[in-house]
Amino acid sequence: MTERNERYSLVARSIHWLTVLLVLTMVPAGLVMIRISGGPLQNQLFDYHRSVGVVLMILTVIRLVYRLTHPPAPLPDEIPVWQQLAAKATHVFLYLFLLVNPFIGWVATSAYGAAISVFGLFTMPAIVAKDRALADQLFEVHLVLGLLFTAAVLLHIAAALYHGIIRRDGVLSRML
Predict the structure, then answer these.
(1) Within a 13 Å sphere around the CA of 144, how many CA atoms are in the beta-carbon half?
(2) CB burial class (10 A; 0-12, 13-18, 19+) of residue 125?
(3) What pLDDT is recorded for position 75?
(4) Fewer CB within 10 A of the terminal residue: the chain, N end or C end?
(5) Could you give the percent of the chain with pLDDT greater than 70?
(6) Using an 8 Å Cβ cutoff, are 118 and 98 in contact?
(7) Residue 124 pairs with which residues in a beta bridge?
(8) What is the pLDDT of residue 3?
(9) Using one digit for the tens of pLDDT, what is the confidence trace for 20-62?
(10) What separation, in Å, do the N-terminal and C-terminal C-alpha atoms of the chain show?
(11) C-alpha distance from residue 20 to each of 35, 143, 148, 169 (Å)
């Protein structure tokens, strides 16, 4: 296959890799924090998870605005249509998740009655009244979406590696 050098811009790549770093630290923190008993470590993990969720929500808005004003180069023509559609569907899901699930976490945390201090810099306002039953339901949705997101991220990574290592068609190098 031919190597194409239609890279994403430095801004797009920087936002992408910052998102990767935040996701790869936040998801494990979220999984650990709900499986350990209460205490200082659990509190720190909750604070970190919530803080990163807020940052990711804001970063995703910035990323979408940037992407709308700076569209990426199209995928190489030799990529089958079904793979192009799968890539678009996966990207749409990832973007939606990065907006919706942190918001669900914010609502759930508000309903639980806990504060969301963003790295100690500011506190997010509660957006619903305290309601433990609602919080429990929303945290369940948040967890299921998080697991689906993890599956989509793994699919995204596998596709990138397939294009970079097996096909060598330039798709992976566009983001490196």
Answers:
(1) 6
(2) exposed
(3) 83
(4) C
(5) 97
(6) no
(7) 116
(8) 44
(9) 999 999 999 999 999 998 899 999 999 999 999 999 999 999 9
(10) 18
(11) 23, 19, 16, 22
pLDDT at 93 over 60: yes
Alpha helices for 113-126 (secondary structure H) = none
What are the Cα distances from residue 142, in Å, to 69, 83, 86? 30, 28, 24
Beta-strand runs (E) in the chain: 116-118, 122-124
Q: Three-state DSSP class for 122?
A: strand
Instruction: Give CA–CA dist 149/14, Å, rounded.
Output: 21
What digits encode the pLDDT tens for the residues 3-14?
Answer: 445 788 999 999
User: Measured between alpha carbons, how far is 24 from 136 in angstroms, rounded to an integer?
Assistant: 25
Task: Tell me the torsion sign for CA atoms 43, 34, 50, 8.
Answer: positive
